[in-house]
């Protein structure tokens, strides 16, 4: 504990709540970022409990998906399905997304211009193919299982414009990293094929599993992340998404894999496993339906009402996004516009 802890003591309930949920910021939360608590193993204990509960919920949700999918997800940390939608349905979806007109959020990561639309029930009412994808029983069951929460994810359409003519910013996506300390799941249905030209998704198979080497690495990283002021590397640890070096990967016995995939491929990955956005070799686009399912890792239960809970999360998250917009728009970090994706 340090001076800032006592200066902002009134925030203690918030810090404790974060500690008992998905809070991961070593910078903003002095309990999570306490050197002495992490020296005693706080970060590692949170990881072990969160992973144990994840496996417990997965076990209970087993009937949702086939034994083959379950085994692959548990062993490798991801599921990949080519030709996910019937050809006609996929073509209709691709046309619908490519010609989408509406509110788009746009921001710069590295030299990439990222454009995103958060898809709520209101958007889906105007987008029949997108609505059908959300209702797709195979996707629904897979995401409910992999998230371990029996809830549908949040849906976005994401369009990356690689090497857009922008003033570059630091890019948090290009280094291999784990999103957070607990298992959580993201999914991508690729509208564009991916290759070296538009930057494939990179994943390190098996790196989602807790091994003794991984836990030792996590322990060391947690102590690094507690460093304050100039001793803290500003690009690496502020948010608890630890970056992993090639040397550390080798020590842990891992090898990254690039997912160069055709359009209409579904990838669902546990992003506690190391991953990154691969480099794009030329100006290009990459459009995906992007799915995110993050929830309190310390809640041992999952919802018995998948649809209603998903609607509540969707409503809550659109409020949060609107609030976040205000600060990002004011700082110039983001621009919102009404129009179409750049293609
Ligand atoms: Fe990530």
How do the helices and strands line up, and which of them pair or pack?
Elements: H1 3-7, H2 12-19, H3 35-39, H4 42-60, H5 67-76, E1 78-81, H6 87-98, E2 102-109, E3 112-119, H7 121-126, H8 128-135, H9 137-146, E4 154-162, E5 185-190, E6 201-203, H10 212-225, H11 246-252, E7 257-259, E8 266-270, E9 275-277, E10 284-293, H12 306-331, E11 334-339
Antiparallel strand pairs: 1-8, 2-3, 2-11, 3-4, 4-10, 5-8, 5-10, 6-7, 6-9
The structure holds fe (ii) ion.
Residues 177, 179, 271, 275 line the site of fe (ii) ion (FE2).
How would you summarize this macromolecular structure in one to three sentences?
The protein has helices at residues 3-7, 12-19, 35-39, 42-60, 67-76, 87-98, 121-126, 128-135, 137-146, 212-225, 246-252, 306-331; strands spanning 78-81, 102-109, 112-119, 154-162, 185-190, 201-203, 257-259, 266-270, 275-277, 284-293, 334-339. By secondary structure, the protein is α+β, with helices and mostly antiparallel strands.
Helix percent band: 25-40%
What CATH calls the topology is Jelly Rolls
Order of H and E elements: HHHHHEHEEHHHEEEHHEEEEHE
Number of domains: 1
Strand order, main sheet: write it out: 1-8-5-10-4-3-2-11
If helices are DSSP runs of H or I spanning 4 or more residues, what is the number of helices? 12
CATH architecture: Sandwich
The distinct bound ligands, ions and cofactors come out as: fe (ii) ion
CA(first)-CA(last) distance:
50 Å
Q: Helix- and strand-based class?
A: alpha+beta
Q: CATH homologous superfamily - what is it?
A: q2cbj1_9rhob like domain
Which oligomeric state applies? Answer: single chain
Low-confidence stretches: none
Quick one: biggest sheet?
A: 8 strands, antiparallel
- Count of strand segments: 11
Mean pLDDT metric: 93
CATH class: Mainly Beta
InterPro entries: Phytyl_CoA_dOase-like
Protein name: Phytanoyl-CoA dioxygenase family protein
Keywords: Dioxygenase, Oxidoreductase
Pfam family, one: PhyH
């Amino acid at each position: 504990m340090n001076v800032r802890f006592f200066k902002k003591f009134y925030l203690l309930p918030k810090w404790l709540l974060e500690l008992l949920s998905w809070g991961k910021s070593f910078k903003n939360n002095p309990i999570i970022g306490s050197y002495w608590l992490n020296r005693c193993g706080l970060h590692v204990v949170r990881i072990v409990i969160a992973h144990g509960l994840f496996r417990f919920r997965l076990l209970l949700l087993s009937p949702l998906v086939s034994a083959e999918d379950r085994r692959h997800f548990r062993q490798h940390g991801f599921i990949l399905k080519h030709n996910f939608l019937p050809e006609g349905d996929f073509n209709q979806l691709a046309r619908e997304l490519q010609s989408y007109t509406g509110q788009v959020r746009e921001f710069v990561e590295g030299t990439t211009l990222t454009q995103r639309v958060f898809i709520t029930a209101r958007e889906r009412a105007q987008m029949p193919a997108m609505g059908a994808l959300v209702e797709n029983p195979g996707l629904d069951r897979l995401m409910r299982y992999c998230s371990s929460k029996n809830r549908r994810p949040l849906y976005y359409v994401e369009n990356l414009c690689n090497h857009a003519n922008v003033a570059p910013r630091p890019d948090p996506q290009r280094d291999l990293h784990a999103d957070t300390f607990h298992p959580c799941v993201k999914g991508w249905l690729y509208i564009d094929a991916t290759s070296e030209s538009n930057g494939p998704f990179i994943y390190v198979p098996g790196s989602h599993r807790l091994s003794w080497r991984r836990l030792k690495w996590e322990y060391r990283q947690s102590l690094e992340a507690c460093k304050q002021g100039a001793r803290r590397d500003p690009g690496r640890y502020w948010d608890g998404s630890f970056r992993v070096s090639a040397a550390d990967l080798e020590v842990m016995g891992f090898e990254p894999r690039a997912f160069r995939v055709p359009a209409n491929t579904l990838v669902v990955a546990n992003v506690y496993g190391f991953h990154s956005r691969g480099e794009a070799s030329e100006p290009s686009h990459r459009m995906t339906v992007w799915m995110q399912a993050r929830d309190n890792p310390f809640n041992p239960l999952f919802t018995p009402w998948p649809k209603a809970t998903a609607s509540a999360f969707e409503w809550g998250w659109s409020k949060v996004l609107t609030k976040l917009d205000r600060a990002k728009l004011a700082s110039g970090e983001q621009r919102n516009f009404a129009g179409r994706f750049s293609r």
